[in-house]
Design goal:
With 313 residues, the chain is an alpha/beta fold. The protein has eleven helices and eight strands. Helix 6 links the parallel strand 6 and strand 7. The chain is globular.
């Protein structure tokens, strides 16, 4: 299983980041994992910021673990390398440390030029209510191409994201290189214990995204993890923030985390939970366990119509 110094326990998520300064402050604070994706439409910005960081000489390329993801229009075997080379162009890198299948659903191909940085539009993330989904593409076809990216030295590791147990089980029946990571939504309201247990038994590291409940993404009428009374009271009693409590809880469950923040102070706050671990008692862990309501903030059924059943149902 990939872990230890090879995979940093806490990474910076870049979804929604529009200022390269957030990348620079995160690296300066001690972040060594930067999590990207083409559908965040900011990889060129991230790449420029990373170049500036490397040019200072304080951090070398080999000191950072950079992850990106395969967008849905590029799941066919002949399109995977095109997509990866486009990401490398945007990030100004020669290789990735991790390349993930972002969602286990293929879209119809969108033509791109891998030599041109940035995006003119957001067509690669537009399913047109599910009409652009291509159900004829097998996860095995996509995975064979992902393995070839390792063979070519374009990425050091490969993995998946948003994969339920059944799809992981199916993928493992015919892969040459096992997925190193399954990056999924995990927080106190969406704990996914059975998925974590299965991945652990199969030697796959679970990486939790939205570990704080996506306060900047959720709708106004949705529940707030950071405002939960049980968590607030527990955090107050320990003299920490709810965010730090959630990070510690996630790490003690054996997951690594991806936490997005543009604020230099909150970036440091999240890291402090790793540097100064908050030990939870069995009673406290049970109290947090009781908060699980299976609540997803990222819901494909809202984006892809009936075809979303191919993911979580």
């Amino acid at each position: 299983m990939l872990g230890g110094p090879e995979l940093p326990a806490v990474g910076l998520g870049t979804m929604g980041i529009s200022d390269g300064g957030a990348i620079r402050t995160a690296v300066a604070a001690g972040y060594r994992l930067i999590d990207c994706a083409p559908v965040y439409f900011n990889e060129a910005l991230v790449g420029d910021a990373l170049t500036e960081v490397f040019e200072t000489g304080t951090v070398r390329r080999q000191d950072l673990f950079v992850t990106s993801k395969l967008a849905s229009p590029f799941h066919r075997r002949e399109h995977v390398e095109i997509a990866l080379r486009k990401t490398l162009t945007d990030l100004r890198l020669d290789y990735l440390d991790m390349f993930l299948i972002h969602w286990p659903v293929a879209f119809k191909y969108v033509e791109i030029d891998p030599t041109v940085r940035g995006w003119e539009n957001e067509d690669i993330d537009d399913s047109d209510g599910g009409k652009q989904i291509d159900p004829a593409v097998s996860v095995h076809e996509t995975w064979m191409a992902m393995e070839e990216m390792v063979d070519k030295g374009l990425t050091r590791h490969i993995g998946v994201s948003n994969f339920p147990v059944a799809l992981i089980h199916e993928l493992l029946t015919g892969c040459r290189i096992k997925p190193a990571v399954n990056q999924v939504e995990v927080h106190p309201y969406m704990q996914q214990q059975k998925l974590i247990d299965y991945c652990s038994k199969r030697g796959i590291k679970v990486q939790a995204y939205s570990p704080l409940g996506t306060s900047g993404y959720k709708e106004a009428n949705e529940p707030s993890v950071l405002s939960d009374e049980v968590l607030r009271e527990m955090a107050s009693a320990k003299g920490v923030t709810v965010a730090q409590l959630c990070v510690s809880w996630a790490l003690q469950r054996g997951t690594s985390i991806i936490a997005k923040s543009s604020s230099a102070e909150r970036q440091k706050e999240n890291l402090r939970a790793l540097q100064n671990p908050i030990i939870l008692s069995e009673e406290e862990r049970k109290a947090i366990d009781s908060l699980d309501r299976g609540y997803r903030f990222f819901r494909p059924e809202d984006w892809w119509g009936d075809m979303a059943m191919a993911v979580f149902h």
